[in-house]
Amino acid sequence: MQKGMKILVFCVCLVPFSYLFVQLLLNNLGPDPGEALSKELGEWTLRFLLATLAISPVRQLTGIKTIVRFRRMIGLFVLFYASCHLFVFQLFILGFRWSSLFQEILERPYITVGFTAFLILVALGITSPKYMVRKLGKNWKRLHRLIYLAAVLGIIHMTWILRSDFGEALLYGVIVAVLLGYRLAHRIYPKKR
User: What is the pTM for the complete model shown?
Assistant: First the structure.
């Protein structure tokens, strides 16, 4: 039963990627498919990141404990979508010129912020296996709290890219603020859980 649910969650997490891939093959992503694909993959990165952050509050508020079993998988999908976002940017926008990527990181603040968030996600992905949890001990939790910083950086990255249409970035920002506020309240008042 649990294995079947994991397969189902895995397949559901792949739906946005599959849809975007088909749209790319059908040339349905508009006049600038690279930019559209990069934007969509970035937004799905943020959505999966928010889903990962929401798992603990949902478990604590509803008592559904089995949901925690999917947190690592969904967290790794955050890294997957972020990697695809970076790959598409490198392929379509920069033409795989690595020197251009490093120059963009240094010269454009929104790329600096986005790349910093990506590095945090890489660190969290590398340390997600169970043996790394055991090896890092208490430091594992400290490191994985950086997911909130990655979320904030992701929202800043998105806001600077959108420039004029802040509605979506504001919505994601409010969700992160609520989730972070819940976590802080949960730590400050542990006996009132």
Answer: 0.91
